[in-house]
Every structure is written in structure tokens, then in C-alpha cells.
């Protein structure tokens, strides 16, 4: 059976959340998410959901919702990485509530990112029939889907960490109760009477037996004296 410690899980969480932040920042700085091909001239134009000023082949207001969702994902990714880093460096205390919060935050960020990407794909398909002839997805779009996987793994690791910490607390309580039972047994044995406490009874009994024998001897001697007389 493979034993996984909480520190290794926390390290994996920080690594994955850091990659999410790095890949998201790369997606913000680069505009080559897709290549839009115009109908008339066949010109290739780079496009991304982060662009505030869209080209003429695609109206700007058509991607405002996707852009807001991507900004929210960027903020949530920074928040998740910050919480995991502070927890790893013991700047904030570890508890079950914090672990559940990081798990929920990871799953929510992953679902929101997947929703934004699906909405962006839908906008691309709709724009293909209206504003441009075709489009081609680049490697940056694939890194966004990779971020969805990383966020899902972060959520699973947070749940596993919560389960391990709960199990260790249960084992600690069982060990503490066993120790208390042993201490109570030792205290009961310490308060029991020692072995030499039964000796006075034997002494009393021996004394009574000796006194009875002395009386019999005196009676025999008296009878002998009376017989002699």
C-alpha cells in the first residue's frame, strides 16, 4: 500500500495551481488563440477572448461575456495559488473547512473555465457563418483545456488531503482513549491493597490457635496434679 503524506499532496497542489496561473498569464499576453480567415481576401487574423479591441471581422460586444468569465478565472486562480502557498508555509492554520474551500474553489474555477471555453467555441462557430469563413485553433487554446484538467486535479487532491487529515484525527482520538484506559487501569492497580495487607489476619489466627493450645496444656497439667494428689 502506498502511503501519501499531506505535505506531498500540498506540494502537488501548489505546483499544479502555479502552472494554472502561468498558463493563464501566457494566454492573456498572447493573442494567438485562434486564426480567423476572412472570406474576401483570405487574410489570417489572430484572435483571443482577452482582446478588448476586436478586429473588423468580428464585433467587439460579441465576446464581452467570455472576457468577463476569463477575468474571473484569472482572479480565482491567483486566489487559489495564494491560499495553497500560505497553507504550505504555515501562514494560515490547516483545518477541514479550509481544505474543503480549496477543493470547491478548484472545481468551481475548472467548471467556469470549461464553460467559458465552450462558449468561446460556440461564438466561433456562430461567427464562422457571419463574419469569417473559417478558423484554426492554436496551441494556446489547448493550454486552456489543460488548465481545466489541472484545476480538477487540485480539487481531487484537496479532497484527498481532507480525508487523510480526518483519518489521522480519528486515529489520534483512538490512541488517546487507549492511553487514558491504560492510565485508569494503572491507577486502579495502584490503589489496590498490597500483598502484605493480609498478614495481620494470619497473625491473629495463629495467635488464637496458640492461645487455645496453651489452655489445653494447662488443663492437662491440672488434671495430672489432681491425679497425683
UniProtKB/TrEMBL annotation:
Residues 1-164 form the Transmembrane protein domain. It is found in: Membrane. It comes from the Eukaryota. The chain crosses the membrane at residues 12-30, 65-86, 98-119, 139-160. It is a multi-pass membrane protein. One of its GO terms (cellular component) is membrane. Keywords: Membrane, Transmembrane, Transmembrane helix. This is Transmembrane protein 225 domain-containing protein. It comes from Macaca mulatta (Rhesus macaque).
